[in-house]
Amino acid sequence: MTGTAPRTGGRWIERWDPEDETFWKESGERIARRNLVYSVLSEHIGFSIWSLWSVMVLFMGPQYGIDPAGKFFLIATATFVGAFVRVPYTFAVARFGGRNWTVVSALLLLAPTVAAIVVMEPGTSYSTFLVVAALTGVGGGNFASSMTNINAFFPLRKKGWALGLNAGGGNIGVPVVQLAGLLVIGTAGAGHPRILLGAYIPLVVIAATLAWLRMDNLAPVRNDTGAVRESLRDAHTWIMAFLYIGTFGSFIGYSFAFGLVLQTQFGRTPLQAASLTFIGPLLGSLIRPVGGWLADRHGGARITLGTFVAMAAATGVVIFASVRESLPVFLAGFVSLFVLSGLGNGSTYKMIPGIFQAKALARGMTGEAAAAYGRRLSGASMGLIGAVGALGGLGINLVFREAFLSSGSGTAAFVTFLGFYAVCCAVTWAVYLRRSAPATVAASPGAERKPQLTTV
Question: What is residue 436's predicted lDDT score, i.e. its pLDDT?
Fold first, then answer.
């Protein structure tokens, strides 16, 4: 059932049919879960490296000569590169194999880590810091290749849970590196960022080694330029990318900016900021699999709409707290945004394979043909959606930068975010939930069983 054939660069599984329940029970589930575990490990460290500069800026005191706007731009640079490289990372899985590319992408994390060790000291030029911050973007690419890889391993009925767990385990790399930064600042002081950086070098090597020893490549996953072109032409790819800006863009943008906002707007010291920064990303990461699970049970569009409504309400709380300069209320609202963005991350990614599976069924495909079509299109679109969604993090940091430059407060930025969440609510309802919406495909539980015109 899962025989292998030798190929250059690693271990390949020639036949893979997760929708076949007999195959899944006999061998597929065990293999898929094993690959999921080591994919999560590598992606976790990738997220830590990608978000490294959300911690490094806390080490950069007045002696570095960089103002808050400059620090926001360092963070934004890492965000932008991480979003950009998601596209080639998506297609690298089919070109080189999921296991092989996981090894390579993990080892690439050594470059930004070692570079940061070399330059992280007062007197380094701002342009050098920008280049090194850009290098950390390779960690953002790990998400796209990992999600594309794991999407191929699991059947549609399990994708919400599997993708949520894979992404949530990766996302939690953000609060982990922030907690590690807190530990360093609290024990050694803000003058020793190299302790944190040095700790990640052996972790990167361990992740790459375990991926080499324990993961597999799927031979049926091929680079399919036809699928890429078709996904680019499909309006749902861009609609879901827009919605993912609202969920993941919020999560990663807030994760990178949280500590700096606390320092700049509320006058927290590096230690005080670091002691609070990790809470939101941690809760948002832990709850992402729950968002996928809820989407499996109740439909991705329903959960996504509810999430955006709640995010708009939480943003209103943050605006109130920002105007009143109430740190406790601000923290409550801001942490709520993290939790809700985590739920939305899980539900939106569940919608993607469901949409393309339903399109296949609506075209008259059945069985493995419909499942294969869904895997082709969802795999091709996930990297694009992930890349555009990550650009939302760039947008958040640039909006924060402009708000603090013009007024010294983040209030105007949060008003902008509130308006965007309102638009996301309208789009989700109009495209995926409005009963009179024409030719809308399902993103609901049961989409693998029958075609539907609207999400219920």
Answer: 54
